[in-house]
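JOB MANIFEST
job_type = single_chain_structure
chain_count = 1
residues = 58
[input]
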Amino acid sequence: MSHFPELLFYTLLLSGTAGLLYGVALLAVTLVSVLASAQDRRKDARTTLGILVRRRPR
């Protein structure tokens, strides 16, 4: 009996969960980069956001 459908289901579930966690992390860092009161903290959050989305700093 083939285990392919079960393997496919768990692969999709794991991929979806990882994507959701990544999205939540991006949202949290984005909120900090906009809402933090300290200038240094906002700059650090923008740098981290650039790393997470693989952008080069300007």
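[summary]
The longest helix spans residues 4-35.
Helices lie at 4-35, 39-52.
exit_status = 0
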